[in-house]
């Protein structure tokens, strides 16, 4: 029976890290950031900009759910990790929201349709009362656990993408706007810093190994689909893409993503690469600690222009 013990809910586990996660305030200035923040690469610029629209509603949802389950955490270090995670995610949501309001809207890119879709998903479909229906008390913990599993799966993806943007040098070589580059690298570095929290919490509250399979399938389809759909919606607002008629249901945007990313992932992470990164998460011995280098993330965070700017403002 011990051979199959990993199929059952994990015994109560705690934090898997010995360092303290540090929430940081940031301040971005969007006055000089162009729509094509990577010069001469509008497709990549729009594709990355869609992340600004995907994240805020989801990150605020993370915070609400984690605050709800906080009293259930028995390990003090994990509770501290979760509290720091909540503060970081709230700051991420605010930073990306500022990009939507202060950068995209004033440059005639309307994000409202994409934002409404994400708000519907996270405030209605995945709410404490999904679509307004009260979850029976006997099923309340399972509903929370299902949603915590979604967050753990998303956080694995954001850690992988965090590594990608942190180590990506191609955008800088092409003269990318320093403000938006700092946004994605700062966010990616903090995703690496707190990469263990969602998985630790999921296991701590009874998450099972088998559930990770169906959750991974649902999340990868959902995230990739929403990413492409949202990017298509803002691209078709640009006359340069009028002939292509971008849509998640038309092959052009998918083939263009493959062409732009190539096999080397230089300009964008290849979609097949993104999917293959889920394999580690599906192994019984998965451990997010080994997914990335914490010190590399901290080194960037110590020098992030937006974090320094916020610190100077507070000091003043």
Record the SSE blueprint.
Layout: H1 42-69, H2 76-104, H3 112-125, H4 137-167, H5 170-173, H6 178-193, H7 197-204, H8 211-235, H9 251-261, H10 271-276, H11 294-303, H12 305-315
Helix pairs in contact: 1-2, 1-3, 1-4, 1-8, 2-7, 4-6, 4-7, 4-8, 6-11
Structural account:
By secondary structure, the chain is mostly helical. The protein has one domain (32-123, 136-315). It has twelve helices and no strands. It has helices at 42-69, 76-104, 112-125, 137-167, 170-173, 178-193, 197-204, 211-235, 251-261, 271-276, 294-303, 305-315. It is globular.
Determine the structural class based on helices, strands and strand pairing. mainly alpha
Gyration radius (Cα, Å) is 20 Å
β-strand number: 0
| Tally of helical runs | 12
Helical content (DSSP H or I, runs of 4+): 55-70%
- The averaged pLDDT comes out at 93
Order of helices and strands: HHHHHHHHHHHH
Strand proportion, as a percent range, falls in under 5%
Give the tally of structural domains. 1
Main sheet specs: none
Instruction: Write down the overall geometry.
Output: globular
Query: End-to-end distance, in Å?
Result: 63 Å
Low-confidence stretches: 1-11
């Amino acid at each position: 029976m011990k051979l199959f013990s990993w199929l059952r809910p994990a015994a109560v586990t705690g934090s898997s890290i010995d360092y303290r996660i540090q929430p940081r305030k940031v301040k971005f200035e969007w006055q000089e950031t162009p729509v094509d923040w990577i010069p001469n690469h509008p497709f990549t610029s729009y594709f990355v900009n869609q992340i600004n629209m995907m994240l805020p509603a989801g990150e605020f949802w993370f915070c609400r759910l984690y605050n709800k389950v906080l009293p259930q955490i028995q390990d003090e270090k994990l509770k501290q990790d979760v509290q720091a995670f909540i503060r970081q995610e709230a700051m991420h949501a605010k930073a990306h929201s500022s990009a939507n309001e202060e950068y995209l809207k004033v440059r005639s890119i309307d994000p409202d349709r994409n934002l409404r879709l994400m708000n519907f998903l996270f405030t209605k479909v995945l709410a404490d009362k999904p679509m307004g229906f009260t979850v029976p008390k006997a099923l309340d913990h399972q509903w929370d656990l299902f949603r915590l599993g979604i967050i753990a799966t998303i956080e694995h993806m954001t850690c992988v993408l965090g590594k990608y943007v942190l180590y990506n040098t191609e955008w800088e070589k092409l003269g990318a706007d320093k403000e938006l580059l700092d946004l994605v690298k700062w966010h990616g570095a903090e995703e690496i810093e707190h990469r263990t929290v969602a998985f630790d919490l999921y296991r701590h509250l009874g998450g099972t190994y088998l559930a990770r399979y169906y959750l991974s399938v649902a999340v990868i389809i959902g995230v990739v689909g929403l990413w492409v759909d949202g990017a298509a919606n803002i691209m078709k607002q640009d006359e340069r893409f009028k002939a292509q008629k971008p849509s998640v249901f038309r092959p052009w945007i998918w083939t263009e993503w493959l062409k732009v990313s190539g096999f080397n992932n230089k300009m964008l992470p290849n979609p097949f690469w993104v999917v293959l990164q889920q394999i580690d998460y599906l192994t019984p011995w998965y451990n997010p600690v080994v997914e990335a280098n914490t010190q590399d993330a901290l080194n960037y965070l110590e020098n992030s222009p937006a974090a320094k700017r916020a610190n100077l403002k507070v000091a003043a």
